[in-house]
Amino acid sequence: MFISIMRIGHLRQADLNLLVVFTVVAEERNITRAASRLLLSQPAVTRALQRLRDTFHDDLLIRTSTGYEPTPTGQRLLQDLATMLPRLDRLMAGGDFDPETEDAIFRIAATDHAAYLLVPPLYTSVLPKRTKVEFGFVPLHAGQYEALEKGRLDLVLNGDHDSATVHLSKEVIFDVDFVCVVSRKSKLARAITLKQYLAAEHVAVDIVGGGQTHPDRLLAAIGEKRRCPLVVAQHTVAMRVAAVTEMIATVPRRMAVLEASNRATKILEAPAALGSFKYVMIWHPRMQTDAAHLWLRSIIRELGRRLS
Predict the structure, then answer these.
(1) Is residue 99 part of a domain?
(2) Backbone angles phi, psi at 253, to 5 degrees
(3) Is residue 50 within 8 Å of residue 2, measured between CB atoms?
């Protein structure tokens, strides 16, 4: 169950108004100013803080010479409330998410490929000029879908070839096909056959779990396997390795084109057997109608559309 019986018990005992009082006092750092802003008496604000301290078994706010300062627990609570209170208010009011007035932190797990393509235009042309939203992009990892389920991640951006996503929601954001990047000194030209591809050595990219999922999966389907004496964590590193060795880097076309300024490499058409695949954003179904998450997905969708 998403909300345990124990958590429901905690929620039944909670007074959300106390959290609002705590937030205002933390912002004002002064009981008198907070009481005025809340239209409450100073004793009422003090009682509210004491009830919260009893609930959390922590002082939450400590009086100092410069005003009230949050304890470590109080600081963590403030960080959580910065996201939770606007969402609760919006949920009760039925309104839309406004990135110019509401604080939000979105956590996204993505390949270096997705981050390379999407993050620069995210901050140069897609986000509103004034926004209170923050983004945190992290690499894909073994626990990414569990993190989605537990709310530690908001989105995963990955290729649509993972059976672990059958219970999650997903949407295609762009198509991907591969090219082969080799040294400018390579005798290979324009295109590479499957025979040449299998005869060569490769620098592979560890997407997650030790392998470059798509090329190796497709080769395995036809009973073949490439030789990869080197595995790195980023496509850009793989291309730099290809520039100074005889190894082939198999990378998404858009990344290779954007890196084409590296005169030490050249781009070859990959064997047809590598084909193409869909790149998707993946989220937990419980976030399907959340206003902030709808806004987030619209932003990622627009970034993908611009790549078409």
Answers:
(1) no
(2) -55, -45
(3) no
85: tokens are 């209170």
Indicate if 188 and 273 belong to the same structural domain.
Answer: yes
Q: Give the domain-ending residue among 92, 122, 153.
A: 92
State the amino acid at position 54 in one-letter form.
D
Does residue 121 sit in the same domain as residue 195? no
What CATH number is given to the structural domain containing 184?
Answer: 3.40.190.10
14: containing domain: 5-92
CA–CA separation, 152 and 119 (whole Å): 20
Q: Of 60, 54, 57, 59, whose CA–CA distance to 23 is shortest?
A: 60
Cβ contacts of 109 within 8 Å, gap of 6 or more: 137, 138, 139, 140, 141, 144, 147, 153, 155, 156, 157, 158
Per-residue model confidence (pLDDT) at position 164: 73
Stretches in the chain below the pLDDT threshold 50 = 1-12
pLDDT of res. 271: 95
What DSSP character marks residue 191? B
Note the pLDDT tens digit of each residue in 182-236.
Answer: 999 999 988 999 999 999 999 999 887 666 678 888 899 999 999 999 999 899 9
Is position 98 within any domain?
Answer: no
| 87 and 22 within one domain | yes
Indicate the pTM of the whole model: 0.68
